[in-house]
Amino acid sequence: MRRKKDLLKYHALAWALVLTLTGCSSANSDTSQTSKTAQEAKLPAAVGGDLSYGLATSPDTLDPHRSGLAVAVRVIRTIYDSLVTQLPDGSIKPWLAAEWSVSPDGLSYTFKLRKDVKFQDGTPFNAEAVKFNYDRILDPTTKAANSAAFLKPYKSAEVIDEYTVKLNLETPSRAFLGNLSQALLGIVSPAAAQKDGDQFGKHPVGTGPFSFVKWEENAAIQVKRNPDYNWAPEIVENKGKSYLDQITFKIIPEEATRIGSVQSKQVLAVETVPPQNVVSLKSDPNVQVLQVNTVGLPYTLFFNHRRPPWNDVKARQAVQATIDVDAIVKTLYLGTYPRAWSPLSPGIFGYDSTLENGIKPDTAKANKLLDELGWVKGADGIREKEGKKLTLHYVDGTPNREKRNDIAVIVQQQLKQVGIAVEVEITKDTANVIYTKGTYDLYGNSQVNSDPTALYSFYHTSDPKGRPSIPGLSDPQLDKWLEQGLVENDDKKRAEIYKQVQHTIIDHASIIPVYVFPYTVAALKMVKGLKFDNLGYPLFNDTYLQK
């Protein structure tokens, strides 16, 4: 097991924003059993109760292998465990796996599993279950989403014995072990997944600290304490069953309603606090505001390089020089969201801070570039060429998550200044518009991730048989760097590779980075022990309600 000593030094800083974890110890298949007496001695004064937790949007599914939404992970992490966990310093620690070894060529990982774990449906957790899970993600009929990218370059699994499994890779990968800690690679019950098929996401079963109760569409999701749970990872203090009886995730898309519900004490905690409410809530004597920056790929506007004229670098640079990102971030987020400058967020390994403050608004430059491309302003101020108006089709999803629809409106206003007409399409069906039809010129997205290999699925040339990447880039040099970044063992060389990747993407105006998302929770002060993992997702193992 290799510690990534240089990896993500920021995690230690980020963790300072979170409630401090103390008293952690490693899991072990033979020695981690906590006696009932010792466990009860650690219980907080108040045990039990229902934590109501307001979500900003509805999860797409509770099948971790098929989900593509961060909001789903908030619920998914309560139901499922992973083989390993990643600590704030980047080190990988045991969870469902007690220990592991890596082959000298880096092409196989052999895991010895805990022997005391069972799924919430009573079926045993073992090597066959691990093999089933990862093979399920590879199976095209699963229609895996982000989990497929996290699992790469997994090839196959061999069951050595009941509690030993060997995972084989196509190529070595620096990110593979860390990715196994991701919630979207959580271990599902093979019996339940086979029984419910496509409907498994509505009837989820894992090994986690909470088990699924019910899902009222667009209203609420309820999970209850798993009474047998006794195998939590080092990242939390409480290794046994949860202090809470249950958690009710209430789906409250309307911002004012969500904030009002916690102020009126109808809900005990709510996520995604709007910027305009952060200051006032911090001064509310009944409320606490918890905030942690997420890491990975910041919220970014991606050009579709497959569609003219945006396949021309000058056209993209004209847009890059026109959009005033500082004005957007300050206007919409009131200083509560940091501006993004790179394809990566600060704190992730390889982030290049020299890109900061590098792009400034310059409408004169934008006009000059568009003139050079032959786009001439018409009577209405919109540029034309060969009888066609210069139009950019901007697609975003609904509901208005993190004020992203408002970004579209401001971009529309700003680009009009240089003669670019922006058509804004707000749709519930972004997956179809982006990945199937491809009828967009600009689209915003982000991804929570702990390693810069996340750039691969966004910027490497797409597999013709797979899902197309959002920007549709096909750059041989960029491909080479992204492939090297997957396997390079020297951290200095690896950081330099990702520095080149970031600069190339920005220099070619392939994207417009906008903001780094700070996950913000407002909770009544009776809610204690709510913590977050190193990616910014909430952890409820230690949470209790003070009466």
UniProtKB/TrEMBL annotation:
<dbReference type="GO" id="GO:0015833">
    <property type="term" value="P:peptide transport"/>
</dbReference>
<dbReference type="Pfam" id="PF00496">
    <property type="entry name" value="SBP_bac_5"/>
</dbReference>
<dbReference type="GO" id="GO:0042597">
    <property type="term" value="C:periplasmic space"/>
</dbReference>
<dbReference type="InterPro" id="IPR023765">
    <property type="entry name" value="SBP_5_CS"/>
</dbReference>
<protein>
    <submittedName>
        <fullName>ABC transporter substrate-binding protein</fullName>
    </submittedName>
</protein>
<feature type="domain" description="Solute-binding protein family 5">
    <location>
        <begin position="92"/>
        <end position="463"/>
    </location>
</feature>
<dbReference type="InterPro" id="IPR000914">
    <property type="entry name" value="SBP_5_dom"/>
</dbReference>
<dbReference type="InterPro" id="IPR030678">
    <property type="entry name" value="Peptide/Ni-bd"/>
</dbReference>
<dbReference type="GO" id="GO:1904680">
    <property type="term" value="F:peptide transmembrane transporter activity"/>
</dbReference>
<dbReference type="InterPro" id="IPR039424">
    <property type="entry name" value="SBP_5"/>
</dbReference>
<comment type="similarity">
    <text>Belongs to the bacterial solute-binding protein 5 family.</text>
</comment>
<dbReference type="GO" id="GO:0043190">
    <property type="term" value="C:ATP-binding cassette (ABC) transporter complex"/>
</dbReference>
<feature type="signal peptide">
    <location>
        <begin position="1"/>
        <end position="27"/>
    </location>
</feature>
<keyword id="KW-0732">Signal</keyword>
<keyword id="KW-0813">Transport</keyword>
